[in-house]
Design goal:
Layout: E1 11-20, E2 24-29, H1 31-45, H2 48-56, E3 63-66, E4 69-73, E5 78-86, H3 93-106, E6 115-122, E7 137-142, E8 149-150, E9 153-154, H4 160-174, H5 187-194, E10 198-202, E11 205-213, E12 218-226, E13 228-232, H6 239-248, E14 261-266
Antiparallel strand pairs: 1-5, 1-6, 2-4, 3-5, 7-13, 7-14, 8-9, 10-13, 11-12
């Protein structure tokens, strides 16, 4: 399996092809139901130590699921789930694969839509090496809703400093268990530089969804923004952070698909 260093952290990306074996309705964004279902499947199939590390007590989980949007499924339909394993997360590939198969047996959502895993393949790592010294403009597009917190609340206004600060904190947490080559990001300097970058186009709009929490046995709000924004200024110091964020997402509920962004650099 080829790993991608991304200059800041190591990721491995897998693509699972799944085939639905029953019919039923789905919520559109599968992350809304995948979290609880996958957590329960992981609890059934993993050791208590692995479950605790991967799901129960980890504030920053070493994996991200990229999930399709589906409102319904019929037996025989096929789709793909992508799994991004971060840093040491690749050591839990067998555990994650077993949990995915267990989830397929129990089913997704209220209709318990069942599926089987047909194949798993390694996805070619992203290209991370290029010269960013001349980059003065970047467009950030959300692939899935982005939920960033400011002063303890999910914000509907995303500025550049908030975005890169959130990415930096996420990467520091994801690499915190390293014994060597620990990252030392100067947050004060980073945010000072980010404060000089201006937003020239703002196409973000608030979104609100709900997910059912099996742990609390009630529906929970999921809020964020969706759309795009363009920023101009000295972008070069933040390029590697933004590329890493494309792979590992940013914000809340990242491990189950939220906070997935696409980054487009311009000179």
């Amino acid at each position: 399996m080829a790993s991608n260093e991304l200059k800041l952290l190591t990721v491995d990306k897998l693509r699972f092809e799944i085939e639905f074996t029953s019919d039923g309705k789905l919520p559109g964004f599968l992350g809304l139901i995948f979290r609880g279902g996958f957590g329960a499947a992981l609890h059934r199939s993993a050791s208590s130590e692995d479950y605790k590390f991967l799901f129960a007590s980890s504030d920053t989980k070493p994996f991200v699921w990229n999930l399709p949007e589906l409102e319904a499924a019929r037996a025989g339909d096929k789709t793909t789930f992508e799994l991004v394993l971060i840093e040491g997360g690749v050591n839990f590939l067998d555990t994650m694969s077993a949990a995915l198969s267990s989830l397929g047996e129990s089913g997704l959502g209220k209709d318990r839509v069942k599926f089987s895993v047909r194949s798993c393949e390694s996805v070619e790592p992203l290209a991370a090496d290029r010269d960013f010294s001349s980059v003065r403009r970047v467009k950030i597009e959300t692939v899935t809703p982005l939920a960033l917190k400011h002063e303890g609340k999910v914000t509907h206004s995303v500025d550049f400093a908030l975005l890169v600060g959130s990415v930096a904190r996420r990467i520091e947490l994801l690499t915190a268990n390293r014994k060597e080559d620990k990252l030392n990001i100067d947050a004060r300097d980073l945010l000072a530089k980010a404060g000089t970058v201006i937003k020239t186009e703002d196409g973000f709009a608030p979104v609100s969804m709900t997910r059912f929490s099996r742990k609390q046995e009630r529906e929970m709000p999921v809020e964020g923004v969706f759309g795009s924004a363009t920023f101009e200024g000295d972008i070069a110091p933040f390029a590697t952070l933004l590329i890493a964020a494309e792979a590992v997402h940013v914000g809340r509920h990242t491990s189950f698909g939220l906070g997935r962004i696409a980054v487009k650099f311009e000179i």
